[in-house]
TrEMBL record:
Pfam families in the record: PTS_IIA (PF02255)
Cofactor(s) this protein cannot do without: Mg(2+)
Binding residues for Mg(2+): 79
Protein name: PTS lactose/cellobiose transporter subunit IIA
Phylogenetic lineage: Bacteria, Bacillati, Bacillota, Bacilli, Bacillales
Amino acid sequence: MEGLEAVAFQMISHVGTAKSLIMEALYEAREGRYEAAEEKLKKSRIHMVEGHHAHSGLIQQEASGQKMEFSLLLMHAEDQMMSAETINDLVAEMIRMYREMRQK
């Protein structure tokens, strides 16, 4: 496995780990363990950044004139990255809601 496939799998691996950590953060917050939830979110961001770095490398290659063939695998990796971003935003808001509910 080389090139585009390797990058796509890097992206999938990192954002998949991020998504798992994001959901774990939600479960921690549901139980009132907000510090643990924040730590999980912090770790998830590290993986999201790694996924974005891999993706940015491909964009830079294409921008410099190196054409990429269509790749269903890369398309899947990008989809996973975008869904992890959306889940992150929703979970962050849900954690805030849990905190507010417990304070009342």
